[in-house]
Amino acid sequence: MNIIQCENCGRKNRVPAAASGTPWCANCHRPLPWLAEAGDDTFAEVVDEASIPVLVDLWAPWCGPCHMVSPALERLARDMAGRIKLVKVNVDAAPGVARKFSVQGIPTLLLMRQGHVVARQTGAAPEAALRAWLEQGLAAEAASDRTA
Length: 148
Fold this sequence. Notes:
The chain has about 150 residues and is α/β, with parallel strands linked by helices. The chain has helices at about 45-50, 65-80, 95-100, 125-145, and strands spanning about 1-5, 10-15, 35, 55-60, 85-90, 110-115, 115-120.
């Protein structure tokens, strides 16, 4: 359970790693950024069962580029509150997840929807490039939903 402060009214809210729906502020009812962590034992519940697209950040504590990208990803999660969920996975602590997605370099970013990878990005990139990649992936995912 994470405590997220609403950027609109300042109220602190408890936000679980896994839940149906999306988190909203209990006070002003605005969408909250959904930030969570997952490991080998919780990945399916936290990521695969999410009701909105999930941006998975596969990272490691010793990785300099991972630390450079992390603040940008958190800003994207705040800017896109209610549209995406950001889930961080430490590949050292979750080797099964790293194996499942054949992670060869980090940071590796996955945009996932209902357990399927919609888009993939390996390596650090500036926030503007990450935003464009994410928006493109969300648009492609939405288009595939309309044709399905």
